[in-house]
Amino acid sequence: MVTVKVDFLKCDGEALCVDLCPVNVYDMQVISGENKAVPIRAKDCIVCMICVVNCPTNAIKVEEI
């Protein structure tokens, strides 16, 4: 099982994770008036870590549990 978490305070809404994720884990949603990446399909995550490595604000954490 995999957990995917986005720290909405750190997320700048640049959407690199949305663009780069090979299995479309993320969608952009308005949270507190700002666009943020939301891992709405975390169960599909293949733990490639592309999102973690490319997030410019280190807002994403992916863990296998």
Description of the molecule:
25% of the residues are buried. A hairpin with a 2-residue loop joins strand 2 and strand 3. This protein has two helices and four strands, in the order E-H-E-E-H-E. By secondary structure, it is α+β, with helices and mostly antiparallel strands. It has one domain (2-64): Alpha-Beta Plaits. The strands form two sheets. A two-stranded antiparallel sheet has the order 1-4.
Strands of the biggest beta sheet: in what spatial order? 1-4
Distance from first to last alpha carbon = 5 Å
Whole-number total of structural domains: 1
Main sheet record? 2 strands, antiparallel
- Strands, total number: 4
CATH topology: Alpha-Beta Plaits
Q: Indicate the structural class.
A: alpha+beta
Question: What can be said about this structure in brief?
Answer:
By secondary structure, this protein is of the alpha+beta class. It has helices spanning 16-20, 50-54; strands at 2-6, 26-31, 34-39, 60-64.
Key attributes of the depicted protein:
Alpha-Beta Plaits; two-stranded antiparallel ribbon; 34% strand; alpha+beta; 65 residues
List the helices and strands and how they pair.
Layout: E1 2-6, H1 16-20, E2 26-31, E3 34-39, H2 50-54, E4 60-64
Antiparallel strand pairs: 1-4, 2-3
